Please model this.
Amino acid sequence: MSVVPAGILPAAPGAVPDAAPEAAVLGPRARLWPALAAVYKAQLSRARVARIPLLFVATFQSIGIMILMRGVVDDAAGARAVVAGSSVLVVAFVALNLLAQYFGQLRADGGLDHYATLPVPPAAVVLGAAGAYASFTVPGTVVTAVFGCLLFGLPLGHLWILAAVIPLAGAALAGLGAALGLLAPRPELATLLGQLGMSAALLLGVLPPGRLPEVVRLARDLLPSTYGVEAFARTFGEHPDWMYVLGDLAVCAGVGLASLAVATWAYRRAAVR
Model:
């Protein structure tokens, strides 16, 4: 008689197995901040070569506008508005115009499908791309602000406020640019909307508000970058009212959060289509 191990005998009907097989364990979901850092680094390295020439164009454009306005503006208030508006215009050119074109092209080429297959939260994709594009504006904005102060004879002591103005205005404009690019049905329309947005930032942000009609000033208040321009312009006074500066920065931050939330919703909407 041969002996057969009990482990290979068929189980009797109704018998309970000794141990049930373990369920497959899925990998953890990607968290927001590590995913955001990964997307930011990828976008920064990808756009470094392609966007640097455009950054020079944005900087030279703003400097040229200040040189032209130097022969028109003859008061201190106008000089502050021109320098502050021209500096933030560099942010608008990159964060609003170029980001609208990027997301419009990404949607048209099917690039959103690639991001949809990755375990990356939608907010990380939008924030990472917006942060990478906004980072390119830092050198051009600083150069424009220093040149403008020297050109118009404004003090350089409070240029450190750009450390708050650039990311807050950049977030507001980048969120708007991403939303325009993702909601536009065609990439050509996304490019057009980005150009119109940058033109609005040029006309409403650089021109002194005291010389604008009342209706245009109301439209200026709706532009996200206006509050960054106002916060920067207030610091050129001899005794800046820092409560007003902080108030403008707070409004700019609120608009930035709202525009980035809209851009995230637009990304989800475009990714599932």
